[in-house]
Design a protein that fits this description.
Layout lengths: L2 H13 L2 H11 L23 H7 L7 H14 L6 H15 L20 H24 L13 H7 L13 H20 L13 H20 L3 H21 L46 H6 L50 H23 L1 H7 L8 E6 L5 H18 L9 E6 L8 E3 L2 H9 L13 H11 L5 E6 L9 H11 L2 E7 L20 H14 L3 E4 L4 H4 L1 H6 L4 E9 L5 E7 L4 E9 L4 E5 L5 E3 L8 E6 L2 E6 L6 E8 L4 E8 L3 E10 L5 E4 L10 E8 L4 E10 L4 E4 L1 E6 L2 E6 L6 E10 L10 E5 L4 E2 L3 E5 L5 E2 L4 E10 L7 E9 L4 E3 L3 E4 L8 E9 L9 E10 L5 E10 L10 E8 L1 E3 L8 E9 L7 E8 L3 E8 L5 E10 L4 E8 L4 E7 L1 E3 L10 E3 L3 E8 L11 E3 L5 E2 L1
Parallel strand pairs: 1-2, 1-4, 4-5, 5-6, 27-34, 36-43
Antiparallel strand pairs: 2-3, 7-15, 8-14, 9-13, 9-15, 10-11, 10-14, 12-13, 16-17, 16-18, 18-22, 19-20, 19-23, 21-22, 23-24, 23-25, 26-28, 28-32, 29-31, 29-33, 30-32, 33-34, 35-37, 37-40, 38-41, 39-40, 39-45, 41-42, 42-47, 44-46
Length: about 1050
């Protein structure tokens, strides 16, 4: 491009002159020919965002001059490794326009809207998840005989659903909604990311009549979700779920489905075995010009009369579209300026067809719920609830050193876990899952991940302490496996008496802790006196040195966990912290670490929702402390049993269990020590919160997207804060606190509904920050002083001057294939000198991977340059579908004083060939039920043959979806050689219908429905007509009743009722 063109283009972008831009870009990069196919590239990125150079330069380099703008264009081409061909330049310029005008949204608003009317992808996703979760709980309640009292409507909240799904008699203070909140949030943040990463991808939004391509994205993703859930890799399943429901939801806003008068979702979009019907042909006109600004009637009457399905075309630069076709519409859509002018999108109430926005959004909710129902049927009710994050207690997660000196530690881990399991089995406080990771040297793993307590008990019982000659062990490798296996916001307990041999993984562990917000507590034994390998006289020389111990302290502090240092003989007294934290609804009220130590007074608020408040102080050397209640009563550390707390001391751990009648108000803990120490206060409460770092979009339609990695020092930082129990508490303040300063930064709050807030902090300085939330109890009355509450997020985050952005076109990888991850590195520091950065990439599956060791940012005449590279990850052919893999990319400056990271999750998804649902053929319905009240004494039987075809993957499960009878199955040989499963359902005449859910081995779902005939004539005999059928092979299973083995030959009766869905 010549300098004059660059200057003109730069000027038009700065002024946001769309007409001028369109003319210029058409001259620089003419209209595409039919042979050219646009590449799918990232288009809309947050500040520092996803399209590496586009965002990092366009947003941060402040392209004030055409010279810098020219550098920017060259770097854009470089990052995509593309030549300056006409078609590529056209795509790059489209990117540039969209990034420059990123306040314009081209779908349902991703997260938030402030017009008070329009619904966003976040609203739609939350409504569907809450509705479907509530329906599952209701159905479980009916089948198990417990009351479900919640009305399922549009007024549901996560708190209401969590409470209604809880076992009867559960105290609200022991209900933890963090997992549920986290799951919902991860799905809608993944949903919104599609608008960030793939704004110009027509198939991801059903633009340009790409119905088959969009349906393929949904169905392929749906298969990947089911595979992930089947492997209990829920996190990656939720990420994939969010991306596909974005596309599904956009169908109802971007197509004319609603205008056609449809009142139910288009089920073919989630069922690949159903043909897409009545699509408008590529040359069929679909729209006429709008009447001025009014586009209410711009769809052609013939289209509506024939029920033809169409969607709008969209292009931010070029006017071209097929003759007579509808446009998307809106200020950024250039196609809407060509006849037929206008658009048909229903993204907001102010869109071209905005009058139908609410109907489109409601349809999108129903369609999302229908997709969730398909997942539910494929995986089962209990697994579905766990996938949605509905649990009442955390997972129990142990990482255990199994070398020779750890025998006592293993026994204690076994004892405390057995105590928790046996004492809570069958209650709401039973752990929601169990994870066990052993390690030694050179081995670590495998991971035992289960919801079956007996499987966990067997696994931990099989651990033996053996081997180990040199002292360091593979502790961090084992911890890495646990961090990627455990749900976010978990707590992991690490048992060891040795330093970490793999200390090089410290930054990887830190990145995983920050991204998953997981606490890590280290149980270190024999720290003082002779540790490890009692094999010779030099035992005392193998003590864990202060420097080795500091690694564990740093990781515990970063995560909000603790480093507990005791002797092996006293370990059993310290493991009470595991019992304390493994119950539901544990919240952190206050936490501080002082290193080096100093005398300090710490205050914290206790509110009326808190139960079982416990304070922990860890520290050695000369340490004394006292605790003071709101009424001024004090108790010192020398009083093990006093008026305020029961105090126990084991090693460096001081545990203060506050009395049952804990007073509300402001408490104080005073610590006197010059050595490092920590103070942590926890309790059980239904009031808690989670947060996510988000990047903001400024403009007329401001919005946010999830931020990956650390925020940049000196920039504004935004948090999306979601509060559980928001009906019980009024949030008044959210702050960031860095104890090393100490520095406290106050944020400005903006409510976005559903108990969530966007909190903005202006120009935060460098530091390690903990997030603190404060407010008042809603129950406080005007007759008394308001009762304050406070909560603190356990995990801290750190600011950085390094920007790391990655480009991931897909999160699902086929076995035997390689995925490439381009990345870019930029820095906010002085750009006048060359800068070298170290790059490290590793994954938790030890899959083959390549990565550059370093990248160089070259001096760029004072502008912020970038360095680019590519990392590859190869999935072996033997990897099972549904397996997840976590790739951590770290970029560190040459002096090792600053680091940033990107944590990417992928799911292994084998290509699904079997896309057909199981086929149900009713064999017979026998027995006629009386119409009188004597139903208990009468029975009816429903029999069906179920197959998955000769080329199918086979029947995986058959369950009773509706009905109170018993089900048995047996295997028979079909006439064509296919396997046939005979399902026999037997019920009393008090239950007159049955619906069976049939799932094949790749998750395709069908249902089979039968109904008994009711005798309306007194004394009418039962009629049965039989003909020979198939021969049984004798393999039989039974569900919910006595086994029924099919005899040979089978008899076929006249079918009374048959319905196949």
């Amino acid at each position: 491009m010549d300098p004059a063109s660059i200057e003109s283009l730069h000027s038009a972008l700065q002024a946001q002159e769309l007409d001028k831009l369109s003319v210029m870009i058409k001259r620089l990069a003419p209209e595409p020919t039919e042979q050219e196919h646009p590449i799918e590239v990232p288009a809309r990125a947050p500040p520092l965002g996803v399209a590496p150079v586009v965002s990092s330069l366009a947003q941060n380099a402040r392209l004030e001059s055409p010279t810098r703008f020219s550098v920017f264009l060259n770097n854009v081409l470089q990052i995509f490794r593309l030549s300056c061909s006409t078609s590529i330049m056209r795509q790059v310029l489209k990117l540039l326009v969209v990034v420059s005008l990123q306040n314009l949204i081209l779908s349902f608003q991703p997260l938030f809207t402030f017009d008070g009317i329009s619904l966003t992808h976040r609203d739609i996703t939350q409504k569907a998840i809450l509705r479907k979760t509530a329906e599952v709980c209701r159905d479980i309640g009916i089948s198990e005989g417990w009351a479900f009292s919640l009305t399922i409507d549009d007024n549901l909240s996560a708190d209401k659903v969590q409470s209604a799904c809880s076992p009867a008699g559960t105290s609200s203070s022991t209900l933890s909604g963090v997992s549920f909140l986290t799951s919902i949030t991860s799905v809608y943040l993944s949903n919104s990311y599609v608008d960030v990463r793939f704004l110009l991808s027509a198939r991801r939004h059903f633009d340009d009549e790409t119905f088959q391509e969009g349906r393929d994205l949904i169905t392929e993703g749906l298969s990947a979700v089911k595979a992930s859930v089947k492997m209990e890799n829920f996190f990656t399943g939720r990420v994939t779920l969010g991306t596909i429901i974005h596309t599904l939801q956009d169908f109802y806003s971007h197509s004319n489905w609603v205008e056609l008068g449809r009142t139910a979702p288009y089920s073919a979009l989630i069922r690949p075995d159903q043909a897409l019907q009545n699509l408008a042909g590529p040359t069929t006109p679909t729209c006429r010009n709008c009447a001025g600004e009014n586009c209410d009637n711009n769809l052609l009457p013939e289209v509506l009369k024939q029920g033809l399905l169409t969607s709008g075309y969209f292009d931010p630069i070029f006017l071209s579209k097929p003759a007579g076709k509808c446009s998307h519409g809106g200020a950024l859509d250039q196609t809407s300026r060509r006849d037929p002018v206008g658009g048909i999108n229903k993204d907001t109430s102010g869109s071209s067809h905005g009058l139908l926005h609410q109907k489109a959004a409601d349809m999108a909710v129903s369609a999302t719920a229908e997709l969730l129902q398909d997942i539910r049927l494929a995986v089962g009710d209990q697994t579905f609830l766990r996938f949605m994050g509905l649990s009442f207690a955390p997972v129990l997660c142990f990482v255990i050193d199994t070398t020779g000196s750890m025998s006592d530690d293993i026994d204690e881990a076994k004892r405390v876990s057995f105590s928790i399991i046996d004492g809570r089995r069958g209650t709401e406080q039973e752990p929601s899952g169990y994870i066990l990771v052993p390690f030694n040297d050179p081995d670590f793993g495998p991971v035992t991940k289960t919801t079956n307590a007996d499987v966990f008990k067997a696994s931990i019982s099989n651990l033996t302490a053996a081997g180990g000659g040199d002292e360091p062990e593979m502790c961090l490798s084992g911890l890495q496996l646990a961090l990627t296996a455990a749900p976010p916001h978990s707590e992991i307990f690490v048992f060891t008496d040795a330093p970490a041999k793999d200390f090089v993984l410290k930054n990887t562990i830190t990145a995983l802790i920050e991204s998953t917000k997981t606490k890590v507590t280290f149980m270190l034994t024999n720290v003082f006196a002779g540790r490890r390998r009692r094999m010779s006289q030099d035992v005392n020389q193998r003590a864990l040195s202060p420097s080795n111990d500091q690694l564990y302290r740093d990781l515990a502090q970063k995560s909000g966990g603790q480093t507990i240092e005791v002797t092996k003989l006293s370990l059993s007294q310290a493991t009470t912290v595991i019992e304390d934290s493994s119950v539901g609804a544990v919240v952190t009220i206050f936490q501080r670490v002082l290193d080096p130590g100093r005398p300090e007074n710490f205050t914290f608020s206790v509110d009326g929702s808190l139960r079982h408040v416990i304070a922990y102080i860890t520290g050695f050397s000369v340490l004394s402390y006292s605790i003071t209640s709101p009424t001024g009563v004090s108790q010192s550390s020398i009083q093990s049993s006093g008026p305020l707390a029961n105090i126990t001391t084991t090693g460096n751990l001081h545990r203060l269990k506050l009395s049952t009648e804990t007073q509300t108000g402001l408490w104080q803990i005073s610590v006197n020590s010059m050595s490092s120490y920590s103070v942590k206060v926890t309790g059980q409460s239904s009031v808690s919160f989670i947060y996510d770092l988000v990047a903001s979009y400024e403009g007329a339609h401001s919005d946010f997207s999830l931020m990956y990695g650390r925020p940049v020092t000196g920039n504004n930082v935004s948090l999306l804060v979601s509060v559980q129990g928001s009906d019980q508490a009024k949030v008044t303040e959210v702050t960031l606190f860095d104890s090393s300063g100490p520095t406290e930064v106050n944020g400005s709050l903006q409510s976005v509904g559903s108990g969530s807030f966007v909190v903005t902090f202006v120009s935060i300085p460098a530091g390690d920050y903990a997030v603190t939330l404060r407010g008042e109890e809603v129950s406080s009355t005007s007759k008394s002083l308001p009762i304050s509450f406070q909560r603190q997020a356990s995990t801290m985050f750190k600011t950085t001057s390094i920007l790391v952005t990655t480009e991931v076109n897909k999160t699902n990888i086929e076995p035997g294939t390689t995925v490439s991850v381009p990345f870019a590195v930029a820095t906010t520091s002085d750009g006048s000198v060359n800068k070298l950065f170290k790059v490290r990439a590793n994954n938790d599956r030890s899959y083959a991977s390549t990565s550059p060791g370093t990248v160089m940012i070259e001096a760029a005449s004072g502008t912020r340059g970038t360095a680019n590279g590519t990392i590859t990850l190869t999935v072996p052919e033997t990897a099972a579908s549904g397996t997840d893999v976590t790739l951590t990319i770290e970029v560190e400056d040459e002096a090792a004083t600053d680091i940033n990271y990107s944590v990417l999750r992928f799911s292994v998804a084998a290509k699904v060939v079997d896309q057909s649902r199981p086929v149900c053929q009713v064999v017979s319905t026998s027995g006629i039920c009386p119409s009188s009240s004597l139903c208990v004494s009468s029975q009816w039987i429903f029999i069906a043959n179920i197959t998955d075809g000769i080329n199918g993957t086979g029947i995986g499960s058959i369950t009773i979806l509706q009905g109170n009878g018993s089900l048995s199955t047996s295997s028979v040989a079909g006439v064509g050689g296919e396997n046939v499963t005979v399902a026999t359902y037997n019920a009393s005449c008090c239950s007159l219908s049955v619906e069976l859910s049939v799932v094949d081995n790749v998750g395709n779902v069908g249902t089979c429905v039968g109904q008994a005939r009711v005798n309306t004539i007194t004394g009418e005999p039962t009629i049965s007509t039989n003909v020979p059928a198939t021969t049984a092979t004798g393999n039989t299973t039974t569900t919910g009743g006595a086994s029924m083995i099919m005899s040979s030959p089978l008899l076929v009766s006249v079918m009374v009722f048959y319905l196949w869905k």
